[in-house]
Write a structure and sequence with these properties.
heterodimer; A: alpha/beta; Glucose Oxidase, domain 1; eight-stranded mixed sheet; 3 helices; globular; B: 420 residues; alpha/beta; Aconitase, domain 3; 3 domains; five-stranded parallel sheet; three-stranded parallel sheet; 16 helices
Chain lengths: 134, 420
């Protein structure tokens, strides 16, 4: 088991499978709004679903439509279980995470993007700012 | 975060569940960005709840049915059609009827149905330095920069600020985030800057460079409301600028030194007419003399004076067959313009004075047409005096565009081809 420190952006905790996108991510355009699968990334990522997973990414980029995308995914029951970024949180996405009760953390060490394996089970505890990966 | 006793009471339900939920969201927003406390806001400009976004109106109606009331003066942003005269834009009746449901929902919550991107034209001008929660990027930058009223770029949570009357003390509400970050020295003849399209182009150029930072613009000046509005609108479109300083004009920058809070950077960007020309060519792909079929004025929504000027230019003239000419404003201004005979003079020419909406917020978006199975309105070439409008038209309506001054827009509408 490995433990990472993270900073709480939006409260909550969960235990779920992780999916790691090591670059900048645009919620508007990089994920399918009906299936929640990634439309970008290499062969190991493209086509994988974010639904119910802890989605770990470097930072957000692009349009300010992220909140509405998160809301749409939540409405169809396919929102990620939690969001974790390396860089500081994006204002718009944070609003979406608050409204849709999606736990959100930032400040993950960049090296984690390469250490963590897709499909591992992790526990996010934002009362204590900790991500535990099995 | 430190809360007052009253805020704690609100959170614990003393004023009901709706207020408790609202302040909880606003506290979470503050916690996410490290705010120390909340402040009382004195005014809110409420998000558009638009028929063209699926589920948006239904959600707003459902929320209003819970009985929540805004606790500060609250105006509303633009819609996808003219609610008083829906046929004027050619929107299908079913979509207009959906959009109309927003009016009762907003009224029941105490929101004033202004449906405009320029509430400042309606007299909603709180005192210098006061805290507000606003949506609509062109209004946000105008309130911050020209009026010195403090707000961030609000999003989905603005609804909850209106309900609880609070916002976290963070971002552009704080002095330290209001200092200039980038210095622009502009060397462009005064005469060229005497039209709002030139200010629109300047804002476009600087916005691209500065992104979300705070530009200080020196070397050109204006005291005209429409110039400052045009500059702000494109700064907030090409970049995501929330605040600019025009030393000697905007209230927090009597001098360049004051704009930078005493720390003037060593480096600056030099802007010349060539840079302005570059923006015009980026936003223009219609040649002189080519056929045009759409002319838009009123981005951001026109003032009464601007409508008066257009009416004067259109006196005893007719626009060409097959040209749509929309002049967009808010409903209070149209009422006054009707009273003054301005609307009649404009409409005699074949042009239309439209309220509550504009081309890119209307059903004319290609994606909206596809989603609702509407016939895509046939637009080939649009001319406009606003860089903001044209930036969005390219993607959302997908026609060719040209950035022109107001007179050339009007002459083009009359000729049915691009005149400049």
């Amino acid at each position: 088991m490995k433990i990472y420190r993270v900073t709480k952006v939006v409260r909550g905790q969960c235990k779920a499978e992780i999916i790691v996108y090591p670059s900048s991510f645009s919620f508007l355009g990089d994920v399918d709004l009906e299936t929640a699968v990634l439309l970008v990334g290499d062969d190991s990522l493209k086509g994988k679903s974010l639904a119910g997973k802890i989605f770990i990414f470097y930072e957000t980029k692009g349009s300010s439509g992220g909140a509405l995308v998160l809301q749409t995914l939540k409405n169809i029951g396919k929102a990620p279980a939690a969001l974790i970024s390396v860089k500081a949180p994006d204002f718009n996405l944070t609003e979406g995470a608050i409204l849709n009760q999606v736990p959100f953390a930032s400040g993950l060490d960049q090296s984690a993007l390469y250490e963590l394996k897709n499909g591992s089970i992790a526990e996010l505890d934002l009362n204590n700012g900790i991500l535990k990966v099995e | 975060m430190i809360l007052t006793q009253d805020e704690k009471d609100m959170l614990n339900g003393k004023y009901g569940n709706i207020k408790a939920e609202s302040i909880d969201y606003i506290i979470q927003l503050g916690e996410a960005f490290g705010a120390e406390r909340l402040v009382d806001i004195v005014y809110c400009h409420y998000p558009a709840e638009m028929g063209i976004y699926k589920g948006n109106v239904e959600d707003a109606v459902e929320y209003a049915s819970k009985g929540g009331k805004v606790s500060v003066p609250t105006t509303s942003s633009t819609l996808c059609c003219d609610l008083e005269k829906p046929a004027i834009t050619g929107i299908p009746l079913s979509l207009a009827k959906l959009q109309m449901k927003i009016e009762d929902a907003h009224r029941s919550m105490g929101i004033l149905e202004t449906f405009t991107c320029t509430p400042q034209h309606l007299g909603f001008i709180p005192p210098f330095g006061s805290y507000t929660a606003l949506v609509e990027s062109s209004a946000i930058i105008y309130y911050n920069s020209v009026l010195g009223v403090r707000t961030n770029r609000g999003g989905l949570l603005t609804r909850y600020s209106a309900i609880c009357g609070k916002y976290p003390l963070m971002g552009y509400l704080l002095d330290e985030n209001r200092k200039g970050t980038h210095w622009f020295k502009v060397e462009i003849p005064e005469k060229r800057m005497d039209s709002s399209d030139a200010w629109s182009a300047l804002g476009f150029y600087i916005g691209k460079i500065v992104g979300s930072e705070v530009p200080v613009i020196e070397g050109v000046t204006t005291q005209k409301q429409e110039h400052l509005l045009a500059l702000g609108a494109t700064l907030a479109t090409a970049g995501s600028v929330t605040l600019f300083h025009l030393p000697g004009v905007t209230p927090e920058a009597r001098t360049v030194n004051e704009a930078f809070h005493g720390k003037v950077p060593e480096n600056y960007y030099h802007i010349t007419e060539k840079d302005l020309d570059e923006v015009y060519s980026q936003l223009t792909n219609i040649n002189r003399g080519e056929k045009i079929d759409f002319v838009t004025l009123g981005c951001p929504h026109y003032t009464l004076t601007q409508l008066q000027n257009v009416a004067e230019k259109l006196k005893n003239r007719s626009i060409a067959d097959g040209v749509r000419f929309w002049i967009c404003t808010n409903r209070m201004t149209r009422k006054q313009a009707e009273y003054s005979g301005i609307v009649e003079r404009i409409e005699k020419s074949g042009a239309k004075v439209i309220t509550d909406t504009c081309p890119v917020e209307s059903h004319m978006r290609q994606s909206t047409c596809r989603e609702y199975g509407l016939k895509v309105p046939n637009v080939e070439a649009m001319v406009c005096n606003s860089g903001k409008m044209l930036r969005y038209v390219k993607d959302l309506i997908g026609c060719r565009t040209a950035l022109l001054n107001t007179d050339s827009c009007i002459e083009s509408a009359i000729a049915g081809k691009l005149i400049k």
